[in-house]
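#onboarding

Welcome to the new folks! Below is a worked example of what a typical request in this channel looks like: someone posts a single protein sequence, and someone else replies with the predicted structure as tokens. Don't worry about understanding the tokens yet, we'll cover that in week two.

Example request:
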Amino acid sequence: TARVLVVTEENELPYMRPPLSKELWFSQDKESVSKLRFKQWNGKERSVYYEPEKFYIESEQFETAENGGVACIMGKKVVKLDVLQRKVILDDKSEISYEKCLIATGGKPKNIPLLMKAGGEIESRTIPYRNIRDFKKLDKLTSAGKEVAVIGGGFLGSELAVALAQKGKENG
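Example response:
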């Protein structure tokens, strides 16, 4: 029986990132958006989270879970991988042994060094966009009708530019 342990720096259960730059921006239902729910192409509403919280087992039960399951350690970062000893070391110095290890680190948004050094007010108005926290921050800022410059024309930047332009039209 399989047991899967997900370690993530984020304080969120596993979720889909694409709706953060697409569906959530086009929804007229602000209550659903605040709950991170959106309508799929088939009209059915769903959460950005892959599974409800009750699907996951507690990380403390991971080793003894008779029927396997998926557990998440959130808010922790893997700082070392010891492939010979088959273990990972987390930022709090705790160690986790494993049988097999999948490294799925994803991408991190690039920031512009000049903006990173600016500090203060500039830093508070700059959002390297990637996760739920960034979505909530940008949604709040744009709800007040603020102007936004999107730096980057890749998939994410292009999707956000279109979504934010649409939101701007709707907000007048």
